[in-house]
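Input chain follows. Return structure tokens only.
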Amino acid sequence: MVDIMGHLAFGLLFLLPAWFLWSRRVSIAFVGLGLVTSLLPDIDLWLSRWFPAEVHHHGVTHTVVFVAAASIVAGALAAAVLTKPLDRWLGWDRFDAGSMFAFSSLAFFLGGTAHVFADILSAPDISTPIEPFWPLYNQPLGIDLIYYNDPLWNSVFLAVMLVVHVGVALAVSPNRHRYRLREQLS
């Protein structure tokens, strides 16, 4: 497990393609939504306080199945709550409930998956093993690439990803393509 800075940095890495697909405001919304869930799998740290026998760190919340299910539920909630406010904020890029559901579910999925991937890369020898593909593949997966809680690694990676996001946001002007949100007709 990496620390909060590392999880946010991995979230930024996974969410970077947004700048190539959408306008700046839409990309900001996508990255913001995704960053929320880049910390979601660690909800097991809180749940284990109330359910110590059932929940452990790097358990079910650190699986692609959990991230996908949570993304669908959160996407439905976002569609119900955020469609109108986000539609007003975006201006000419328009959101209806269906596009908001798909948009936010994808952002949530990428953020949560980034968290799981970051934990795969860090300290499998001193941390609870992670089984990211459970129940399809019931073996731990770990690559001892990043030392757990390394402040230099995590802070530098976060700083680099912030600079990359700002640079890409300023440099890229996405072309019109089929992935754009539908435009307002008036």
